[in-house]
Amino acid sequence: MHNAAFAARGINAAYLAFEVVDLEGCIKGVRSLGVKGLSVTIPFKQDVIPLLDDVDGLARDIGAVNTLVNEGGYLKGFNTDAMGALRALEEKTDLSGKRVVIAGAGGAARAIGYILKLQEMEIVIANRSQSRGMALSESLGCRFVNLKKLADIKADILINTTPVGMFPDVDECPIPQEALREGMVVMDVIYNPFKTKLLATAEARGCLIINGLPMFIYQGAEQFRLWTGLDAPVDVMTEVIKRELA
User: Fold this and answer.
1) Do 26 and 123 sit in the same domain of this protein?
2) Which of 25, 69, 104, 112 is the most exposed place for a label (fewest CB within 10 A)?
3) What is the pLDDT of residues 92-111, one digit of tens each?
4) 195 is catalytic
5) What is the pLDDT of residues 18-35, one digit of tens each?
């Protein structure tokens, strides 16, 4: 996705994957080699923060960094997962005054919860594990419900941030069918498969569905902007991702 974007904008750059064993050594290597930027993935999104010179306010609130920008050896961390989710939602629906249920209590749920809190939405966290769900709801200052009782909540938007339904376990669905009401917006952050069991069920029940592809692409587009200062060629990025996943 990023290499296609660099080529489309005529930028002499390459995006490569590195398997990291020594995180501190990796960050020293980034400074020494002058690597311009990084994506940071699980399990390093929290652990990398103390090794940086600065962290963007939103990323600090979320407590996770997925993007690094290197400006002459000065490393700053950002979180573009949150912005990716926001753009994917805003593309399909008006968020003002809406009640959103976020299923899950991991890093993606935390990132999305914080960005939607800034939109002054009413947020409800739903999770199987009460301790994790309560911890996230308390940090967001919002309500918590057990995932099994989700049907009791009348939500305008439901976002699944759990891995349930991801390939190869495509026949699993994390949300009770009775919680899916006609007219709801249902988003699944999973993008493989394109249409999860949750989204297929929601669509059949008259919901507007959003798969995980737009969030993935928009978070990458925001990374591209941070690294280059240019708007990302979203159409090119979308085309290459669809082709690779197919």
Assistant:
1) no
2) 25
3) 999 999 999 999 998 899 99
4) no
5) 999 999 999 999 999 999
